[in-house]
Amino acid sequence: MNDPLIIAGKSYTSRLLVGTGKYRDFNETRAALDASGTEIVTVAIRRTNLGQNPNEPSLLDAVPPSRFTYLPNTAGCYTAEDAVRTLRLARELLDGHSLVKLEVLGDPQSLYPNVIETLSAAKTLVAEGFEVMVYTSDDPIIARQLEDIGCVAIMPLASLIGSGMGILNPWNLELILERVKVPVIVDAGVGTASDAAIAMELGCSGVLMNTAIAAAQDPVLMASAMRKATEAGRAAYLAGRMPKKFYSASPSSPLAGMIAPTQT
Q: SS3 for 101?
Protein backbone atom coordinates (compact mmCIF):
# COMPACT_ATOMS: atom_id res chain seq x y z
CA MET A 1 0.00 0.00 0.00
CA ASN A 2 1.13 3.53 -0.73
CA ASP A 3 0.09 4.68 2.73
CA PRO A 4 2.94 6.56 4.42
CA LEU A 5 2.99 7.84 7.97
CA ILE A 6 3.82 11.53 7.83
CA ILE A 7 5.26 13.22 10.91
CA ALA A 8 6.53 16.80 10.84
CA GLY A 9 6.52 16.71 7.05
CA LYS A 10 8.64 13.57 6.75
CA SER A 11 7.28 10.33 5.30
CA TYR A 12 7.78 6.87 6.83
CA THR A 13 6.80 3.48 5.47
CA SER A 14 6.47 1.75 8.85
CA ARG A 15 3.80 2.72 11.37
CA LEU A 16 5.51 0.80 14.17
CA LEU A 17 7.83 2.79 16.43
CA VAL A 18 10.10 0.77 18.71
CA GLY A 19 12.12 1.53 21.83
CA THR A 20 15.78 0.60 22.27
CA GLY A 21 15.83 -0.19 26.00
CA LYS A 22 15.53 -3.36 28.09
CA TYR A 23 17.20 -5.74 25.64
CA ARG A 24 20.00 -8.09 26.71
CA ASP A 25 22.55 -6.28 24.58
CA PHE A 26 22.87 -4.05 21.52
CA ASN A 27 22.99 -7.06 19.20
CA GLU A 28 19.54 -8.18 20.33
CA THR A 29 18.33 -4.59 20.08
CA ARG A 30 19.38 -4.37 16.44
CA ALA A 31 17.96 -7.80 15.55
CA ALA A 32 14.58 -6.88 17.04
CA LEU A 33 14.53 -3.51 15.29
CA ASP A 34 15.29 -5.14 11.96
CA ALA A 35 12.56 -7.76 12.48
CA SER A 36 10.04 -5.05 13.37
CA GLY A 37 10.64 -3.10 10.18
CA THR A 38 10.63 0.11 12.18
CA GLU A 39 12.16 3.33 10.93
CA ILE A 40 11.75 5.42 14.09
CA VAL A 41 13.46 4.30 17.31
CA THR A 42 13.08 5.90 20.71
CA VAL A 43 16.13 6.53 22.87
CA ALA A 44 16.11 7.36 26.57
CA ILE A 45 18.74 10.07 26.67
CA ARG A 46 19.31 9.75 30.42
CA ARG A 47 19.83 5.98 30.27
CA THR A 48 21.57 5.33 26.94
CA ASN A 49 25.16 5.96 25.91
CA LEU A 50 25.26 8.08 22.76
CA GLY A 51 28.89 8.98 23.16
CA GLN A 52 28.68 10.61 26.57
CA ASN A 53 30.73 7.68 27.96
CA PRO A 54 33.54 7.09 25.44
CA ASN A 55 34.75 3.90 27.16
CA GLU A 56 31.37 2.14 26.89
CA PRO A 57 29.55 0.63 23.87
CA SER A 58 27.46 3.26 22.09
CA LEU A 59 23.99 2.70 20.69
CA LEU A 60 25.06 4.79 17.71
CA ASP A 61 27.30 1.95 16.54
CA ALA A 62 24.63 -0.77 16.75
CA VAL A 63 21.73 1.38 15.58
CA PRO A 64 23.19 3.96 13.18
CA PRO A 65 21.25 7.21 12.64
CA SER A 66 21.91 6.76 8.92
CA ARG A 67 19.57 3.76 9.00
CA PHE A 68 17.04 4.77 11.69
CA THR A 69 15.38 8.03 12.69
CA TYR A 70 16.24 8.66 16.32
CA LEU A 71 13.48 9.85 18.62
CA PRO A 72 15.17 10.97 21.84
CA ASN A 73 12.81 10.90 24.79
CA THR A 74 12.66 12.24 28.32
CA ALA A 75 12.04 8.96 30.15
CA GLY A 76 12.65 9.43 33.86
CA CYS A 77 11.78 13.15 33.93
CA TYR A 78 9.23 14.40 36.44
CA THR A 79 9.30 18.16 35.81
CA ALA A 80 9.01 20.34 32.75
CA GLU A 81 12.39 21.91 33.51
CA ASP A 82 14.12 18.53 33.64
CA ALA A 83 12.48 17.38 30.41
CA VAL A 84 13.47 20.53 28.52
CA ARG A 85 17.05 20.28 29.76
CA THR A 86 17.24 16.64 28.67
CA LEU A 87 16.05 17.36 25.14
CA ARG A 88 18.42 20.28 24.78
CA LEU A 89 21.21 17.82 25.61
CA ALA A 90 19.81 15.38 23.03
CA ARG A 91 19.95 18.06 20.36
CA GLU A 92 23.60 18.66 21.13
CA LEU A 93 24.48 14.94 21.14
CA LEU A 94 22.63 14.32 17.86
CA ASP A 95 23.94 17.32 15.93
CA GLY A 96 20.90 19.56 16.04
CA HIS A 97 18.25 16.82 15.85
CA SER A 98 14.84 18.42 16.40
CA LEU A 99 12.34 15.52 16.38
CA VAL A 100 11.81 14.46 20.01
CA LYS A 101 9.44 12.59 22.27
CA LEU A 102 8.33 14.48 25.36
CA GLU A 103 7.15 12.61 28.41
CA VAL A 104 6.85 14.08 31.88
CA LEU A 105 5.85 11.52 34.49
CA GLY A 106 3.67 12.03 37.53
CA ASP A 107 5.12 9.40 39.87
CA PRO A 108 7.59 6.50 39.73
CA GLN A 109 4.99 3.86 40.57
CA SER A 110 2.38 4.32 37.84
CA LEU A 111 4.51 6.35 35.39
CA TYR A 112 1.29 8.14 34.53
CA PRO A 113 1.86 11.42 32.69
CA ASN A 114 1.79 14.72 34.57
CA VAL A 115 -0.21 16.68 32.02
CA ILE A 116 0.33 20.07 33.69
CA GLU A 117 4.11 19.73 33.46
CA THR A 118 3.77 18.21 30.00
CA LEU A 119 1.85 21.22 28.69
CA SER A 120 4.45 23.56 30.16
CA ALA A 121 7.38 21.68 28.65
CA ALA A 122 5.65 21.42 25.27
CA LYS A 123 5.21 25.20 25.08
CA THR A 124 8.90 25.78 25.78
CA LEU A 125 10.14 23.12 23.37
CA VAL A 126 7.92 24.19 20.48
CA ALA A 127 9.04 27.80 20.99
CA GLU A 128 12.66 26.61 20.75
CA GLY A 129 12.08 24.89 17.43
CA PHE A 130 11.69 21.28 18.54
CA GLU A 131 9.27 19.01 16.69
CA VAL A 132 7.49 17.49 19.67
CA MET A 133 5.80 14.11 19.75
CA VAL A 134 4.15 13.99 23.15
CA TYR A 135 3.20 11.17 25.53
CA THR A 136 0.03 12.03 27.38
CA SER A 137 -3.10 10.70 29.04
CA ASP A 138 -6.07 9.56 26.96
CA ASP A 139 -7.88 12.83 27.70
CA PRO A 140 -9.23 14.36 24.47
CA ILE A 141 -9.20 17.87 25.93
CA ILE A 142 -5.51 17.69 26.81
CA ALA A 143 -4.78 16.14 23.42
CA ARG A 144 -6.39 19.10 21.67
CA GLN A 145 -4.46 21.56 23.83
CA LEU A 146 -1.17 19.86 22.96
CA GLU A 147 -2.03 20.03 19.28
CA ASP A 148 -2.88 23.73 19.63
CA ILE A 149 0.52 24.33 21.23
CA GLY A 150 2.14 22.90 18.10
CA CYS A 151 3.00 19.28 18.91
CA VAL A 152 3.48 17.21 15.73
CA ALA A 153 2.02 13.97 17.14
CA ILE A 154 -0.18 13.08 20.11
CA MET A 155 0.77 9.84 21.90
CA PRO A 156 -1.91 8.77 24.39
CA LEU A 157 -1.35 5.75 26.60
CA ALA A 158 -3.37 2.61 26.04
CA SER A 159 -2.61 1.54 29.62
CA LEU A 160 0.26 2.12 32.02
CA ILE A 161 3.84 1.99 30.75
CA GLY A 162 5.21 -1.54 30.84
CA SER A 163 1.93 -3.04 32.05
CA GLY A 164 1.09 -5.01 28.92
CA MET A 165 -2.60 -4.52 29.72
CA GLY A 166 -3.53 -3.49 26.21
CA ILE A 167 -6.10 -0.88 25.23
CA LEU A 168 -8.29 -0.34 28.28
CA ASN A 169 -10.33 2.60 27.00
CA PRO A 170 -10.83 2.51 23.23
CA TRP A 171 -13.64 5.08 23.48
CA ASN A 172 -11.27 7.80 24.71
CA LEU A 173 -8.88 7.01 21.89
CA GLU A 174 -11.74 7.42 19.43
CA LEU A 175 -12.60 10.80 20.97
CA ILE A 176 -8.99 11.92 20.49
CA LEU A 177 -9.00 10.67 16.90
CA GLU A 178 -12.12 12.73 16.23
CA ARG A 179 -10.67 15.91 17.69
CA VAL A 180 -7.06 16.21 16.52
CA LYS A 181 -5.60 16.37 13.04
CA VAL A 182 -1.96 15.47 13.75
CA PRO A 183 -0.99 11.78 13.94
CA VAL A 184 -2.27 9.89 16.99
CA ILE A 185 0.13 7.16 18.04
CA VAL A 186 -0.70 4.76 20.85
CA ASP A 187 2.13 4.81 23.36
CA ALA A 188 2.42 2.50 26.38
CA GLY A 189 0.51 -0.56 27.50
CA VAL A 190 0.70 -2.74 24.39
CA GLY A 191 1.37 -6.34 25.43
CA THR A 192 0.94 -8.49 22.36
CA ALA A 193 0.20 -8.36 18.64
CA SER A 194 -3.59 -8.18 18.98
CA ASP A 195 -3.24 -4.95 21.00
CA ALA A 196 -1.31 -3.35 18.14
CA ALA A 197 -3.90 -4.53 15.62
CA ILE A 198 -6.76 -3.08 17.68
CA ALA A 199 -5.04 0.30 17.95
CA MET A 200 -4.58 0.44 14.21
CA GLU A 201 -8.14 -0.76 13.50
CA LEU A 202 -9.42 2.16 15.58
CA GLY A 203 -7.69 4.51 13.16
CA CYS A 204 -4.52 5.38 15.06
CA SER A 205 -1.65 6.48 12.85
CA GLY A 206 0.85 4.20 14.56
CA VAL A 207 1.91 2.30 17.66
CA LEU A 208 4.97 2.76 19.83
CA MET A 209 6.25 -0.02 22.06
CA ASN A 210 9.32 -1.25 23.89
CA THR A 211 8.60 -3.64 26.75
CA ALA A 212 6.13 -5.73 24.72
CA ILE A 213 9.00 -6.69 22.44
CA ALA A 214 12.03 -6.55 24.73
CA ALA A 215 10.38 -8.53 27.56
CA ALA A 216 9.00 -11.27 25.31
CA GLN A 217 10.57 -14.71 25.57
CA ASP A 218 11.70 -14.29 21.96
CA PRO A 219 12.03 -10.55 21.30
CA VAL A 220 12.96 -10.92 17.64
CA LEU A 221 9.98 -13.16 16.88
CA MET A 222 7.67 -10.82 18.82
CA ALA A 223 9.03 -7.87 16.85
CA SER A 224 8.10 -9.65 13.65
CA ALA A 225 4.61 -10.37 15.01
CA MET A 226 4.14 -6.71 15.95
CA ARG A 227 5.12 -5.67 12.45
CA LYS A 228 2.51 -7.94 10.89
CA ALA A 229 -0.17 -6.91 13.39
CA THR A 230 0.40 -3.22 12.79
CA GLU A 231 0.22 -3.70 9.03
CA ALA A 232 -2.89 -5.91 9.27
CA GLY A 233 -4.67 -3.50 11.60
CA ARG A 234 -3.98 -0.57 9.28
CA ALA A 235 -5.20 -2.52 6.25
CA ALA A 236 -8.38 -3.51 8.09
CA TYR A 237 -9.02 0.13 9.04
CA LEU A 238 -8.58 1.29 5.46
CA ALA A 239 -10.75 -1.56 4.15
CA GLY A 240 -13.64 -0.64 6.45
CA ARG A 241 -15.10 -3.45 8.50
CA MET A 242 -18.60 -4.77 8.01
CA PRO A 243 -21.21 -3.28 10.37
CA LYS A 244 -21.98 -5.15 13.53
CA LYS A 245 -25.48 -6.63 13.57
CA PHE A 246 -26.91 -7.59 16.92
CA TYR A 247 -29.57 -10.35 17.00
CA SER A 248 -29.44 -10.73 13.22
CA ALA A 249 -27.76 -13.58 11.41
CA SER A 250 -26.82 -13.23 7.77
CA PRO A 251 -25.54 -16.08 5.60
CA SER A 252 -22.09 -15.52 4.16
CA SER A 253 -23.08 -17.17 0.87
CA PRO A 254 -25.85 -15.80 -1.42
CA LEU A 255 -29.21 -17.54 -1.41
CA ALA A 256 -30.09 -16.74 -5.03
CA GLY A 257 -29.78 -19.68 -7.39
CA MET A 258 -29.85 -22.31 -4.69
CA ILE A 259 -31.03 -25.76 -5.76
CA ALA A 260 -34.37 -26.43 -4.12
CA PRO A 261 -34.52 -29.50 -1.88
CA THR A 262 -36.02 -32.59 -3.47
CA GLN A 263 -39.61 -33.27 -2.42
CA THR A 264 -40.42 -36.81 -1.30
A: strand
Q: What is the pLDDT of residues 116-153, one digit of tens each?
A: 999 999 999 999 999 999 999 999 999 999 999 999 99
Q: What number of other Cβ atoms are within 10 A of residue 47's Cβ?
A: 12
- Residue 255: DSSP 8-state: -
**Prediction pTM value:** 0.89
Instruction: Report the alpha-carbon distance of residue 185 to residue 37 in Å, rounded.
Output: 17
Residue 72 CA neighbour count, 13 Å, CB half:
29
Q: What radius of gyration, in Å, describes the C-alpha atoms of the chain?
A: 21
pLDDT of residue 121: 98
28: left (phi over 0), alpha (psi -120 to 50) or beta: alpha
> Which residue from 89, 97, 88, 103 is spatially nearest to 68, judged by alpha carbons?
97
State the CB neighbour count (10 A cutoff) for residue 85.
Answer: 14
φ, ψ (nearest 5 deg) of residue 35: -65, -30
Report helix angle 115-127 to 80-93, nearest 10.
40
Q: Which residues are catalytic?
A: 101
Contacts 24+ apart (CB under 8 A), 114-122: 114/78, 115/139, 115/142, 117/78, 117/79, 117/80, 117/83, 118/80, 118/142, 118/146, 119/145, 119/146, 119/149, 120/80, 121/74, 121/80, 121/81, 121/83, 121/84, 122/146, 122/149, 122/150, 122/151
